[in-house]
Amino acid sequence: MKSKYELLIWDVDGTLLDTSEGIISSAIYSIRKHSLDIPSEDVMKTFIGPPIQDSFQRVFKVKREEAMAMADDFRNYYKFKDLFKAKKYPHLDTTLNKITQMGVKQVVATYKRQDYANSIIDHFGLNKFMNIVCGADFEGKLNKSDIIQKAISKSGVSELRKIVMVGDTVNDLTGAQNLKIDFIGVLYGFGFKEYDSINYPHTVGIIDSVEKIIPLLRGEEK
Fold first, then answer.
1. pTM score, two decimals?
2. CB-based contact 203:184 (threshold 8 Å)
3. Which of 82, 97, 129 finishes a domain?
4. Do 71 and 149 fall into the same domain?
5. What is the pLDDT of residues 97-136, one digit of tens each?
6. Domain limits at 196?
7. Same structural domain for residues 76 and 34?
8. Which pairing describes strands 7-10 and 130-136: parallel, antiparallel, or unpaired?
């Protein structure tokens, strides 16, 4: 059966890939370099997904300038040491291949910086499924809505009802909400942990494993 959507927009961290090992490792490196105490494991997991400078500022209550300096140290270490310390979620390639066969254009919209996003998508062989990869700018000025909008504009798909965003955090949800597109929430990632935490009228479904997205794309179940 054909998909009800023409464009599927994927988040990366916690949606396509489990990137926790690399992100946490590089965050700890930056925290130690700035002589700060390492937070608990649960707090460290909240660094996965949002812009890293925002996480440093939120957790350590530092000034924006120091948060940006910590982010620079994080990125320099992450790029050369930890970028590829990640793994695909189970059944990912099979699912992406099925979606391609359904005639759906697949793209990426991620808070990862553009060069990192390109590298990690290529490294894990996901470039054969993704038509477009859109990441954050080098200055960190783009929000998730901006990045999603960029992906939509590049895709050539103009009907909003034919577009769906898939992600595991409130940033993904807010981005979809701001652009008035459908949303599929992910519970196997790092953000959402409960079904009732995803409150948005255009949420067409919530999945706890990646392969369960297929029926939602066909409109078979809520």
1. 0.93
2. yes
3. 82
4. no
5. 999 999 999 999 999 999 999 999 999 999 999 999 999 9
6. 7-16+89-218
7. yes
8. unpaired
